[in-house]
Each structure stands twice: as C-alpha cells, then as structure tokens.
# Entry
Amino acid sequence: MAKILYVAIGNEILMGKTVNTNESFIGEHLVAAGIPLDLTITVKDDVAMIANTLNHYWEQYDVIIMSGGLGPTHDDVTKHAMCAFFGKKLIFHNDIWEKIQKMYANKSFDLPEIAKTQAEVPQDFTPLNNTIGTAPGLYFYKNSKHFFAVPGVPSEMRFIFEDSILPLLLENYHPQPLFQRTIRTIGIPESILSTSTQQIKETQKTKIAFLPKPGMVDIRVYGTSEDEVSKIVKLFVQHIPQQSIYGFDNDTIEGIFHKKMMASGKTLSAAESCTGGLIQSLITDNAGSSEYFKGGVVSYSNEAKMEILGVRKATLSRYGAVSRETVKEMVLGAKELIGTDYAIAVSGIAGPDGGTNEKPVGLVYIGTWGKTGLVITKNNFSGTRIEVKNKTALYALRQLEVEI
Amino acid sequence: MAKILYVAIGNEILMGKTVNTNESFIGEHLVAAGIPLDLTITVKDDVAMIANTLNHYWEQYDVIIMSGGLGPTHDDVTKHAMCAFFGKKLIFHNDIWEKIQKMYANKSFDLPEIAKTQAEVPQDFTPLNNTIGTAPGLYFYKNSKHFFAVPGVPSEMRFIFEDSILPLLLENYHPQPLFQRTIRTIGIPESILSTSTQQIKETQKTKIAFLPKPGMVDIRVYGTSEDEVSKIVKLFVQHIPQQSIYGFDNDTIEGIFHKKMMASGKTLSAAESCTGGLIQSLITDNAGSSEYFKGGVVSYSNEAKMEILGVRKATLSRYGAVSRETVKEMVLGAKELIGTDYAIAVSGIAGPDGGTNEKPVGLVYIGTWGKTGLVITKNNFSGTRIEVKNKTALYALRQLEVEI
# Structure
C-alpha cells in the first residue's frame, strides 16, 4: 500500500488569502482510487523550507504530490527547490516552448520573454501534459518513489492529476479498496435524522458520519467490508422517509434534475424572483441543458412580473408578490410565454431586510408544473441571504425533479 | 518573533469530504495580528500519527495550534494523543460538566452519558471557554512554548481562537505588524503583467506576489514598512493600464458594481444567453439590489430571444445567436422590455460542445448600455464551461461598471 504525502506550496494559503480546495480534491480522488492520502503539509514559497520538508519526509513516503509555485514570476520557487533537493539543473525543452507559443497564438498579447521559464524542466524529470495552462506538470521517479509537482491553479492541477498522476499511481500500486456510500438527504435536520436512526451502529469494519450542509444532511458509511457497508446503508434507507433521500454518493440535486430532464423529452422554462437567476444558472451549468431549457425570466420587480409574465395587478395587490397566488401566475406565465411543457417559479424574501411578522425573511413559495400539473409549496428557510437563495434553488429543483 | 504551526486533525479533510476553511481563518487572523502562520499539517485521527507530528515539530515551533478530534465519540482521539505525548492523565472537571448540563437543559432531548468525556481535561492543561459547543479549548504552557487544542467545528474554533488564543499570543509576543495592499486586475495575463512591471522590485522589507485567478490577477504587496509598501503599490498603479485595475484589497467586481449602481439612481435589466442567469444571480446576491435591478431574461433559445426580447429572425439567421448584431438587439430588447436606464446582455459559447472553427468555445459577445450608450466587446475566454460562464459574468459586470 502506497503512503502518500501532499505538499501545498503557498504563502497565500498560510496567510489565509486562498482556501486550499486542492487538498480536498486530491484527498477525495485518492480515497476513491483506494490509495488514500496520509498527510498534508502547507509550506511557504521558500526554497529552504520546501527542501527541508522534502528532506524530512522523503524516506517516509512512497508518493509525494506537490502543488503551487510553478508559475513564471520571481515568487515561484518550487522548481528551484526541487533542483536543490534532488541535485538537478533546469533544462530548456523546446517542444514545451512551442506548445506555449501556440497557446498564446490566439491571444491579442505578445508572448513575454519570462514565459520561456515555463519550458524549463529539472534534468531527468518528465513533463506532464497540461492543456489548461502553460506550466507542465513534473514527474520524477527514484528508488521506487514517485514525485509529482503540479501548478496550484485548481483547474490545471485537476487536469494533470486526472490525466497523468492518477493513472500512473494506479499502474504502480494495488489499492486496498475502501468501500464508501453516502446517502444524501434533504429537508430533515441532522438531530432528528440521527435520533431516528440511533439504533443503527458502526461495526468494527465500518464507520458512520453525519455531515450537515445548509438544508441537507449527508450520511456517509465507509469501511473495508463492502457487505457490512451495504447492510448499514440499507438500514438507513429503511428508517428515513423516502422523499427526503434525493440520491447517493456523488449525486447532486442539480445533476439528477439534469439527467431526468435530458431523458424526459420535455421542455422547461423558469420565472425567478428571490433567487434572481440562480436556478437557471444551476440548470445551465450542465452541458446539454439547452436541449430542454428554453429560457426564463428574472422578474425582480412587480412590473416585470406583470409585464413579462402576465401576473395580474389585482393578484399582486391583494396577496402580495410573495404568495401562493402570485407564484401560481408566475409558473403559468413562464410556461405560456416560452411555450414549454414544464415550468418552475419562486417568490420569497431572501433578506436580510424586507421581512414582516406575517411574511418573515426566509418565507419562499415554490411553484412547479410537472407531470401531475401544478404543485405549490410554502417554505421557511433559515440563514443568510445567500443561504436562502441556495436553499430555495435546490428545493425548487428537487420539487420539480420528482415530477419529471 | 513567534514561529507558529497549525495542525489540523481530520480524516474528513484528508479524505476530501471537508475543505479546511479553518486553515485560512487562522492564517488570515494571525497575519492581521502580525504573527503569521509558518506551516500547516493535516494529520489523521490517529494517536500515534498525532504524537509523531508533535514529536518532530515540538522543538522547532514556539506555538502549536491544533484543531479537531475533541468530540465525545470514539473517533475523537486528540486528547489521548496529547496525553501520550505530554505524559499526562485526563482529569474530570466538575465545573465544565455543570456547564455542559446547562447547555443541554434547553434542548428537547436528554443528555447522553457519552457527553461526560467532554469535561475531561489533560492534567496541567487550562480549559478555554467555548460558548458555542460543549468541548472546551485546551491550553498548555511549557518551556516558553504554547500549545492549544480546539474543536474542528469552524464556529467553535473561531470563537475560542478570538476569545482566548489570540489575546494570549498578543500578550506574549510583540508582533511586527505586516502591511499589505492588493491591486486587483482583470483582462491582462499574469506573464504580461509581470513583464510590463518587471522594473518594480521587492525591497528587504517588502514582498510582491502575483496571484492569478481565472481571467484576473491580484498583485499583493506586503511587508513591515508601510511606507515602502505604498511606494511599490503606487509604482504598480502607474505601470498598469488604468482600465485593468478594478479595485484594491477586498474589492470584488460584483461589490463595486453594486455600490456604484446603488449610488447612481439608475435602473438595470439584463438578457443572458450563455451565462444562463449567473449575471443576475451575482447582482441579486447583494442586499438592496432590488432598488435598481428590475429584472431580466434568460434567453437560452432562439425562440426566447425573438419572442421575449424582440431579436429579429433575420439577425439570428444572418449572423447567428453568438454575434455582435444579436447581442446588440438583446441589450436594446431588455432595456425596452423592462424599461430601464441601463442594460447588460451576453451571448456566447460556453462549451464544451457547440464550437466551430469560426466560432470556437469561449467566444462571447458582451453588450452593455451605460452612461455613454452602447458598448459591445468580443471576448475569447478559455477554460471549462463553468469558468467561461464565470469569466463572462465578471467581465460583463466590469464592462458596465466603468459606464455607470
């Protein structure tokens, strides 16, 4: 079993300017591959400190993955640290330089001289393909140990990790699989969920974790026995109300919604008030969504609700913009205006201002038109403005998803 | 000057289930206090590994802050690791137990027996007050070294850090304040920016860092001399094209846009194609945006462009949906439909499919109507679908922001 160390090079992380999302990406993908991460170190952009870290951990680890500090500017020192530690010189690679020149060919900028340093690779290191940016990944193999260095920019790190690093590790190690299964729930607070399932216990070979997120709770079961993990998962599924389980593992509400819409052959429109476009943005994050999503309206003012969606003035003045009646006319308005089979509409008070005793911040009406016709729900969401927006969007997608 | 190490205890972090936001919180607050963080280590919930880490780093560091693994369940082992390393026993503190009982008095469920372990503190350690949760922070002082352990739950960690740890550190160390200033730029690649400013050099008391983000670069200048930091910042501002500097320090494009719109007294509408609602969602993330933002359209299909926004069929068939001409009609259509002073419209190819040689993925037209009237730009964005959406949204807000 390979022992793996991840080293993040980053003053910015240590100074709190950047949250290290690379750590969780690498951690998640290594666990899924059955070769989990053992330790992470975040160290400054400093040749001596990077070399010291390598010095201390080199013998203890089989694989070291290092990220950050591969850019072209003076504060990028990772390659120098590697040269210092491994006793190498930088070699200019003409093929990399040509590739960099091609990447710049489409831009309106001239290629600066400094970009040439991106084509320099430590002697005996193998450059790893990076189609997202100009800095190649770097790979060195010595005494059965694998050393990788990748840029810190998440999209570049992710590309090289999936394209080069993971395949190489899987070739070299025979992973001991960790079986894990996540039950993803919406609408039930963690305390209720854990109390109503407290008779379900971990075994020697399994672990159970409750991971609350705004408006949702993941229940993660993992361990070395696939059989025991599935038994525990089955118990949870039996003891949790069906409608609150929206998926498993990497399922997201947006993702399931997208898959079901793609398969349905139906078309969709939307009318958003308090979410301000977020629902439609989540839908269109999915490639291919233009096949079913035809468009929608962000009716942020009463005028927009009336003039574009045809909400009646009498409805707005009698019931208000945040009401079952207005949301009903918004759903029907969007459906008719854009001429779609299905539609989704929301109106609510995202806060922090605008709440009253009768209609407090977090009050949101969600209307959907799906296979059984109109469904309208009244919801009370807690949290900040952004949290109310996010919860509304996910609950709305979930409300229509069960109606696709 | 104190050398500070932060140790995160967390299987969840190493397995990629949790992003370590505690690291950036601690990093940011220590920098602001003038006693920056030197190193971070993330280690498993494992007594031997935690003790090994302390063993290796204890002599090198003046301050160690450890988070996580202080909960009541079997997988919380941090206190046992501390006892093993420091050679201590756990002592039951009755006053903590009484406090825990009080905290549970308001809850609707009974206090479980297991909660008693929360009142156990290693011998000679000082408990630190935690009003958010049941686990107290822990403090130990030995040979001029300070050791802290806090729960991993962010809200509890933050409370104890601000309430106990930071005041204690500031009493013991005489921080050298760090002055920092960030210049935030958009539209110029890092290598061009660094080349065109290469005559600006760090001094003994200052550092310069280039921090690339998708489509944007931050230039951060920091050091112990306020005077030298401002001199260097001034030089950068002189050498960078004015229009590419959108702000300083914690400024965001969305934030500046919102402030200027609030002050303008003007109204705004939007018509989005490839961003699918993201621009309007960013605008409405700001409390108070309903004062100027009246609504908009997500015209994801040609039909929606024609029927809602009044884009002409001839324009779409002659120039295509992604064209200067279509975007022009979208801006004017939104402005007229919703009756606003200003408007913003985008049409482009977010990818990954849908690109051609003539119109590749990442081609985006941005149209804005601001104080000087119509402005349309042609942009070529690189990256994933989500990155193209994000870059388009921020560039569009910036394009109108200079026209408010």
In short: Chain A is about 40% helix and 25% strand. The domain at 4-172 of chain A is CATH 3.40.980.10 (Molybdenum Cofactor Biosythetic Enzyme; Chain A). The first strand of chain A starts at residue 4 and ends at 9.
